[in-house]
Amino acid sequence: MKASRGNGLRGIAVLALLLGVACASAPSQTVAAAHPATQADVPTAQNSPQNHAPTVVAVRIVNESGKVLPEPPGGLPLQVDKPLDRAQVAETLRLLFRTGDYADVRAVESPADGGVRIDCVVREQLFFNRVVVQGLTSPPSDASAVAALQISLGQPYRKDVVDEGLDRLRDALHDEGLYASQVSAEMIPHQDTRQMDLIIHVISGPRSRVSEVRLKNGTEYADADILRGFRIKAKTTITSARIQRGTERIRKFLVKKGHLNARAVVRRGEYDAAKNTVPLELDVTEGPRVKFVVTGAKFSGGEMKRLVPVYQEGAVDADLLEEGKRNIRERLEREGYFDASVDYTTITHETEQKRGAKGAEEVITYKIERGDRHRLIGFEISGNRYFNTEVLRNRVQVVVKAFGVRERFSRRLVEADRDALQNLYLANGFQQAKVDTQFLDNYRGKEGDLFVKFVVDEGKQTRVASLKLEGVHTLTEDYLLGVTGSTAGQPYSEFLVATDRDNILAIYYNEGFPDARFTATAEPAHAEAQAATPENGGATPGANAAVGKNGKPKNGDGSDFRGDLVQLTYHIDEGRQRRVRNILIAGYEHTRPGVIRRGISVKKDAPLREGDVVDSQRKLYNLGIFNRVTIEPQNPTGTDTNKDVVVLVEEAKRYTIAYGGGFEVQRLASSNDPTTSEVQAAVRGIFEISKLNLTGRADSLSLKLRASSIEDRALLVYSDPNTFAKPQFTFQATAYTEKTQDINTFTQTRYEGSVQLTDQVTRLTTLAYRYTFRKVLVSNLNSTVSPEEIPLFEQPTLVSQFGVTWARDRRDNPADATKGSFNSADFGIADTGIGSSASFLRFFFQNSTYHPIARKFSFARAVRIGILEPYRDSVSLTFPAQTTPVRVIPLPERFFAGGGTSLRGFALNQAGPRDSAGFPIGGQALLEFHQELRFPMRLPFIGTALGGALFYDGGNVYSRVSRVTFRSSPPKPIFDPANPKSCLFNCTNELNYFSHTVGIGFRYSTPVGPIRIDLGFPINRPQFVAPICPNGDPSCLDGQNGFKATRLPGFQIFFNLGSTF
Amino acid sequence: MSRAHTFGVVIAVFVLGLPAYVNSGSPPAQEVIDRIAARVENDIILLSDIRALGRYQQLVEGKAENDQQILDRLIDQWIVRNEADTAQFPHPSDADIAAGVERVQKSFTSAGEFATRKQQIGLTDAEIKTMVAAQLYLGNYLDSRFRPSAKVESKDVQEFYEKAVVPRAQERGQTAPSLDTARDYIHEALIQRSINEQADRWLDESRGRLRVEKFLEAGPK
To answer: For residues A929 and A902, what is the distance between their CA atoms, to the nearest angstrom?
Structure first.
């Protein structure tokens, strides 16, 4: 009774607050008498809508200039030919406002024949478009200033939003010391697109300076020490970054001294406008000095800092100390101290400080009892019947020590594995599934050996008897069922339902239904449903589930795991579909709008799909000419489902200049001894200038210069990534000159011009068509080239060549592939008829495949085949070389092999035929085979970043395709026994044989590919003929001292960035 | 009649008749029957909302506040409704609403009196029902939100009894009810006071965070 009396009073007080009505339940007859209504105050009964309401004969939406606008798609609540209802009028105004299309609405009644006409007079809403900040002196940057405004693209324009944004911008400017700045906003409306550009004019003024730094020193250190760290003094200009750096330096200084709770805070004083200065108050507190003591185990100071995260966080609290405790225990467990116990205590006591004051010291002691060391020798999973053991083992993170693999084991890991296994069962409908762990210590009597058992109790599987979709109107049920896993006969679990929900909602969101909702209900199925399921009640087994001989699901022991059935219903509330009314493009200055339009996947009158928006952004960013691409619907919160979509781009700076320098080292074959190599070093300079978006078509022109004493290069490139207005075509024109010494027989100067059209046929396949004109001048011919050959080589080489390349790339990571394949084929034709100095066909093919093996092991292999075939007026190479003038394939156009990305038993370009002086001259055929087994490594300090590789390279460069052979060695040169310096037979150095190289490599992973060190050991080094020459006498290389048989070095080392193939 | 006099009469007739002529050709008079009184975040409060609450105040209290005051109350209502909707607070049942309407009706001397007042003021049954439903929804929400933190001790009840109830009874020459009799009422009244204070503070804070644009002219309607 008491309670009811109390309840009777409930809510009375708040009514007065909200309604201005003291108490609805209080008798008010006296009140009514005391305050009689007056005709002036309230509408009379005659005004009541129920009495004498005129008939509405027309309802219109008109703008302020009288133009009649279309009604919203769902119509208006206010109806024609019915009495005027004020409630409907109000509802109509609300509905119109909520569309978001109108900033103001009012209902105007006009007499009309037979009743009244109601005009909803609207003021159309404008929406924020481009926001530009002008005149700002950085910092803050323009982007930061725009961000401070907090105005979003497509947001409804309101003056107060601008004012609030300006206030925030002023605050941001003050933070950066721009106290004297002035900010104003200029609005530029575009009535046709209902957009409002906002130009923020900033007069930055001089940056304020510090008038003084008032230090409140709560530390034991001298003021001078603190202020030295702060590095801000009177007259220093103020920026937030400078102040933050200053306080951070002080904090780090104190943390380094052991005060982990140290704080340095700056408070700004009153701004003095006359002097444009601000005083700073620096408040520094040190907190207690923290000291760590570890008992029972040894850890280095650095390791303790990694394990106990108080140093990283710069604070000491119970959570961080607990985390440290867990980390230490896990670290010990990983070392095999599985019984380790860790605890900590903190004691704070007073200490004497440097300046005589009393301070505090907090001693944190981690007490460790390691216990006996164990070794995980294995683990076992038992009791599983539905999933086979291999499936479950793949879910387990615990790793038993093996070759190249370090043990991974801790209590936390075992618990995580147990949970993972249990969750797998739960997700597959085994709602009572349990997984227990058992630790068998001193396993099989061997002290320290530990064996872990995961014991699975599966229970019965709950399955779906039927699935019903409700509320699907716009999309088809079949479409949704395509992404639904919980269909009849399948396991039932909350996890699977959640997955279905995510998949279904993702489809709806992507089809322009941002308000789509999903709920699911599951009810026990009746007996008939049981009978109606596939296989008369059998679940369709998962791919990894065990299946009985009759196709019905069975456990390993033959028992049936089928349990309850549920009837599942997915209730979908689609909401309304957003569609694209118009696409508005803004923000471009140099770019042609067509280029932007072609990059937009969002289509007019189509649903506003999230996937299209993301795809548009990706395509526009890929043009490489925009810093930012924002795509938003205008009027995002309005109920109007037809949206104008705004694409706002921010063009990147068009000119890019880069310059740099470096030190270049190349290991080249020796210029005076064909069997040795020499290191050449040079200072390198680089200069690059590019102009992006050259003609507004996202094209670019760039000039790259590189100069050193080993190599000079100038490259002018024009690139148009959207040739023919098709994104799959890229046109590139290149002018190029290069002077290089990487072939030690000669120095080549190359002038080249090429045009290439690349067609990205599919995501994986590329076709490139090109024409190349190349002029190569050979100079500094090695004196070992026989005098008869010199005129041939010194003739300028002209190559005029058409070519086509096909490539198909299925690698997972082109920089360092572990899976997939790469194929390419290149065909070219050079003809004297089109200006070439020789006529020949060129063919090159490469096939690489990559095969992952368990635990980061992988195997990679590649084959490269190259063929050059002279025709018409050109002839193949002969050994010895012909002395009469003939057209041969020019030296620089021939195939060369050897080096870090080729045959690793040879130095750069050192494989294949050689001239009479023993120097490589390239060949007309190339055959390379590569095999590489890549494996993980674990080393101290480096961890797993370093990998290893065992490799085999086979093949060679051959004088011509008909000379390709798998013979392991060429015929040995035979010298005259009477004159050992005279070669009698096999002296041509044609060296057609198949080389074999084995080696070992080390790989250090980087984002741009591995850094490689490869050590190659050629197995079958052939003998070849070289002139006898005393050391250091280059003039004798023509053979005047006779010839000798020699071999290339038996070991090569390469340093490279990027994968071999 | 002189020519001059006749001319003067003609001019007078023309001048005086002109407005009538102009009036006869002008478009029919237009009347704004509803418009936006305030914009609260992305929502609006209409002039008709102000009028409706004013009429309800007139019915229950016998007088209505001015438009500005009513608008402020509607803004407060918006804040509470927005919070309650976000929290998916349950709406009052039809029975609760009917009971609330009945309470309003019973506050009048007779059903006839109630009907007459309604008609005089221009309130429909539907409008009253809507108002009562809003009262219950908003009131219940505030009650549920702030009641848990409204703590009233026994000594507060006793103090209120001694300092307010007893002196007032004495002033009126009446015998004050015993503390035990009045305890529950005093306890609830103190809780209501606490809820009121908390709600007031919360609304003050919320108003400060709200983006409100008022389009209502200042001063009484």
So the answer is: 9
The answer to whether A279 and A212 have CB atoms below 8 angstroms apart is: yes
Question: B65: which DSSP letter?
Answer: -
Backbone angles phi, psi at B91, to 5 degrees: -80, 155
* Token output for A2: 């008491």
- Classify burial at A180, counting beta carbons within 10 Å of its beta carbon; exposed 0-12, middle 13-18, buried 19 or more: middle
Q: Are strands A820-830 and A797-809 parallel, antiparallel or unpaired?
A: antiparallel
Q: Which of A432, A712, A429 is nearest to A545 (CA)?
A: A429
d(CA A263, CA A266): 10
Measure the CA–CA gap between A897 and A879, rounded to whole angstroms. 19
Rounded Cα gap, residues B119 and B101, in angstroms: 16
∠ CA A1041-A1044-A1045, rounded to 5°: 170
CA proximity to A682, closest of A736, A741, A737, A738:
A741
Torsion sign over Cα A509, A513, A515, A517? negative
Indicate the helix (H) or strand (E) that contains A244: helix A240-256
pLDDT at A958 over 80: yes
> CA–CA separation, A428 vs A1041, rounded Å?
84
Q: Which residues of A942-971 are buried (b: 16+ CB within 10 A; e: fewer)?
A: eeeebbebebbbbbbbbbbbebbeeeeebb
**Is the whole-model pTM more than 0.90?**
no
- Per-residue pLDDT tens over the stretch A887-896: 888 887 899 9
Q: Do B36 and A104 touch (CB under 8 A)?
A: yes
Rounded CA separation A948/A937 (Å):
6
Distance CA A971, CA A255 (A): 74
Half-sphere exposure of A552 (CA within 13 A, CB side): 13
Which of the residue ranges A11-15, A207-211, A693-697, B205-209 would you say has the lowest mean pLDDT?
A11-15
Neighbours of A402 (CB within 10 A): 9
Chain A: nearest CA to B20, how far in angstroms? Answer: 19
* B94 Cβ neighbours under 8 A, 6+ residues apart: none
Whole-angstrom Cα Rg for chain A? 41
Q: β-pairing, A857-870 with A925-936?
A: antiparallel
Amino acid A367 reads K
Residues found in chain A: 1061
Q: Which residues of B touch A111 (CB under 8 A)?
A: 28-29
Contact A337, A371 (CB under 8 A): yes
What's the first-to-final CA gap in chain A, in angstroms? Answer: 89
Q: Which residues of B touch A9 (CB under 8 A)?
A: 185, 188-189, 192
**What sections of A335-446 are H helices per DSSP?**
389-393, 411-427
Q: Would strands A209-218 and A127-134 be described as parallel, antiparallel, or unpaired?
A: unpaired
Are A45 and B32 an interchain contact pair (Cβ–Cβ within 8 Å)?
Answer: no
CB A136 within 8 A of CB A204: yes
Output the pLDDT for position A892.
78
Angle at A590 between CA A589 and CA A594, to 5 degrees: 95
A1009: left (phi over 0), alpha (psi -120 to 50) or beta: left
**Residue B119 at interface with chain A, using a CB cutoff of 8 Å:** yes
- Do B190 and B137 meet the contact criterion of CB atoms below 8 Å apart? no
User: Alpha helices of A59-136 — where are they, by DSSP H?
Assistant: 86-98
As a residue count, chain B comes to: 221
Task: Report yes or no: A351 and A388 within 8 Å, Cβ to Cβ.
Answer: no
Are A50 and B124 within 8 A, CB to CB? yes
A624 dihedral zone (left: phi>0; alpha: psi -120 to 50; beta): left
- Do the Cβ atoms of A865 and A906 come closer than 8 Å? no
CA distance A239 to A932: 55
pLDDT digits (tens, 9 = 90+) for A847-856: 999 999 877 7
